[in-house]
Amino acid sequence: MAALAVVFGVLSLTAGGQALFGPEAARAAKGIVLAPVLWFNFLMGPVYIAAGAAIWRAVYWSYAAAWAIAAANTAVGGGVYVYWLLGNAVEPRTLGAVVLRAAVWWIIAFLLGRQRAG
For the chain, what is the HEC assignment? Predict the structure, then answer.
């Protein structure tokens, strides 16, 4: 779980950094970008890495961090979904990525909870 969290963090920083600060061709390849979602994902990269390190070290707050990250990603995903329902254009990759992030963090949080209970 820790490694998965860290990998998600590194990927979020890399992909977000390319989309935000990379060459024009890299930014154009991202398609229809929702800036708030892009910034959220980029800024969450270090949070994912910190949570992964906490999970690895079995720090007491890692469980709460996983739940908070899962909830935050779900809220952003809900916002994207509502934005799309209102008739706005949304890159399908954005929807997929936000659902994937939320699902992975819910699974991590659930597994950490089971680990704590066991």
Answer: CHHHHHHHHHHHHHHHHHHHHCCHHHHHCCCCCCHHHHHHHHHHHHHHHHHHHHHHCCCCCHHHHHHHHHHHHHHHHHHHHHHHHCCCCCCHHHHHHHHHHHHHHHHHHHHHHHHHHC
- Each residue's pLDDT expressed in tens, for the chain with a length of 118 residues: 899 999 989 999 998 888 889 888 877 777 888 989 999 999 999 999 999 999 999 998 999 999 999 999 999 999 999 999 999 999 888 888 999 999 999 999 999 988 876 5
User: How many C-alpha atoms does 6 have within 13 Å on its Cβ side?
Assistant: 9
pTM for the predicted model, two decimal places: 0.90
Could you tell me the residue ranges of all domains in the chain? Answer: 2-117
In the structure encoding, which two tokens stand for residue 112, read together?
A: 């950490």
